[in-house]
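#lab-general

N.A. 3:47 PM
ok so I finally got the sequence cleaned up, no stray characters, all 73 residues accounted for. can someone with queue access submit it? mine expired

B.Y. 3:52 PM
send it over

N.A. 3:53 PM
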Amino acid sequence: MSSERWVRVIAGVFVLLSVILGAPASPVFISQWFLAFTVFVGFNLLQSGFTCFCPLERVLLSMGIRDARACRR
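B.Y. 4:20 PM
back already:
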């Protein structure tokens, strides 16, 4: 898988996990502050859509995951 797809997978897991842990109606509710992490992930996805800069993608590239070249010209 390319780095772009890994970013999507990891972001999706983080969003789902933080909603499960932060929603008061959830059976595994811990704290509503987990919803702040959902906002953080969403903001990073939004800004990377405009700037083509994603901190997670930098980490994945340093780990040897191949580049998707979606934002490269």
